[in-house]
Amino acid sequence: MEAISMKCPNCMGDVVPFGNGVYGRCTSCDSVFKLKDGEAGPAAGSEDYDDGDDEDEEEVFDFEQFFQDAYDEYVEDESDLSDAYFAERLEDNRSKVRAAVEHFGIDDDDADEVYCVVDTTIFGSCKVGFAVTVSGVYLVDEDGDSAFIDWDDYDECRIERDGGKVIIGGHPFIMSNDEAKIMARVMRDLQE
């Protein structure tokens, strides 16, 4: 098997695959790219081949798998996270989901499908932070402003990190430097 070297089109840095090789991240500028659409399937003409003409079928994003992959990729030790709850850490802290639903104004339809909660309050009350659901991102920022960003708007949303601050569409969230780095990457990956 031949090794393939991938270069970032933005800065020519090395691109490292993650998420089962579907995505790649530049080691220099942190840009994220979709490398492939999915796994190889049956060949055209075989009885198992699906030409994709089913109008009723819509591609469903697997949030649970995405956050598990992100956890495996970015979190070396659970103690690296103090404010962020996703993947295994969210499963062990279901009270965070209940608090996020209450304080972030999460709709009843989304309350059962929360995949990430970031609680940036000092005492863990979940009155400031954000939550990722199947419909979008619900948030209450450090200034007390509430917002909901659906996935169409989120794709165009600017995700920034300034030291220990993650800024999502102009809404700031303060956390440790290391955790801000992890969460900025995870939230940028969601845009892909």
Q: Which secondary-structure class do the elements indicate? A: alpha+beta
Report how far apart the termini are: 28 Å
Strand fraction = 15-25%
Total DSSP helices = 5
Question: How many distinct beta strands?
Answer: 11
Mean pLDDT: 84
> Largest sheet, described in full?
5 strands, antiparallel
Give an overview of the whole structure.
The radius of gyration is 18 Å and the shape is globular. The two termini are 28 Å apart. It contains 5 helices and 11 strands; from the N terminus they run E-E-E-H-E-H-H-E-E-E-E-H-E-E-E-H. Mean pLDDT is 84; it is low at 38-49. The strands form 3 sheets. It has a 5-stranded antiparallel beta sheet. It has helices spanning 63-74, 88-91, 94-104, 151-154, 177-191, and strands at residues 15-18, 23-26, 32-34, 84-86, 114-119, 129-133, 136-140, 146-150, 159-162, 165-168, 171-174. The protein has 2 domains: 1-39, no CATH class; 60-191, no CATH class. The chain has 192 residues and is α+β, with helices and mostly antiparallel strands. The longest helix has 15 residues, at 177-191.
